[in-house]
Structures are given as structure tokens and as C-alpha cells.
């Protein structure tokens, strides 16, 4: 449905890249901003979840398919507030 209210759902990828190897994003980085936003930070890997977190919109990640290497690929569905 599209009209004066806008769209009902927002679809996005779950990740901007294929799933990272275990240990790629170690949680022991003392610099939180560098971990999130730095050159090797997670923002380039997972830029879509923060949108749902910041807006408070309900969201869910759903498996959608597999890459050529058999890695999972998903979509994120965000709904309106309320």
C-alpha cells in the first residue's frame, strides 16, 4: 500500500558483505568508536541494523538464500512504529 501514509515496510539487506569469518570483528577493541566507525569497523559490514536501532522501528532479519559458497544471505524487514 502506498499513499498519504507512505510505505508499510522497508526492506534492506542484513549485511553489506557476505558473512565474515569467525573472529574478524573481535569484541576486545577498547576504542568503541573505532570498532563501530573506523576503517575496519563494523559499520561497513553491517550498516542496516543501526537504522532500526536508532529509530526504534521494529525489525527482523530473515534468511533469504545462499551465496555461491553456501553462506547465508538475509533480508531485513522494518515496519512502522506503533
SSE layout and pairings?
Layout (H helix, E strand, L loop, with lengths): L9 E4 L18 H6 L11 H7 L3 E8 L5 E7 L4
Antiparallel strand pairs: 1-3, 2-3
Description:
The chain has helices at 32-37, 49-55, and strands at residues 10-13, 59-66, 72-78. A hairpin with a 5-residue loop joins β2 (59-66) and β3 (72-78). It has a 3-stranded antiparallel beta sheet, with no helix packed on it. The mean pLDDT is 85. The protein is of the alpha+beta class and 82 residues long. It has one domain (10-78).
Strand content: 15-25%
**Helix share of residues?**
10-25%
Counting structural domains, the number is 1
Biggest beta sheet summary:
3 strands, antiparallel
Helix tally? 2
Average residue-wise pLDDT: 85
Number-wise, the strands total 3
The radius of gyration over CA amounts to: 15 Å
Structural class: alpha+beta
Shape: flat
The helix-strand sequence is: EHHEE
Q: Regions with pLDDT < 50 over 5+ consecutive residues? A: none
Q: Widest sheet: strand order?
A: 1-3-2
Question: Terminal Cα separation, in Å?
Answer: 17 Å
Task: Produce a short descriptive summary.
By secondary structure, the chain is an alpha+beta fold.
Which terms would index this structure?
2 helices; 3 strands; 82 residues; alpha+beta
Amino acid at each position: 500500500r502506498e499513499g498519504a501514509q507512505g510505505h508499510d515496510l522497508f526492506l534492506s539487506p542484513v549485511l553489506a558483505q557476505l558473512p565474515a569469518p569467525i573472529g574478524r570483528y573481535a569484541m576486545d577493541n577498547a576504542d568503541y568508536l573505532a570498532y563501530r566507525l573506523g576503517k575496519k569497523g563494523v559499520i561497513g559490514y553491517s550498516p542496516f541494523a543501526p537504522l532500526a536501532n536508532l529509530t526504534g522501528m521494529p525489525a527482523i532479519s530473515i534468511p533469504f538464500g545462499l551465496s555461491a559458497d553456501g553462506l547465508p544471505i538475509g533480508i531485513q524487514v522494518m515496519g512502522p512504529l506503533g
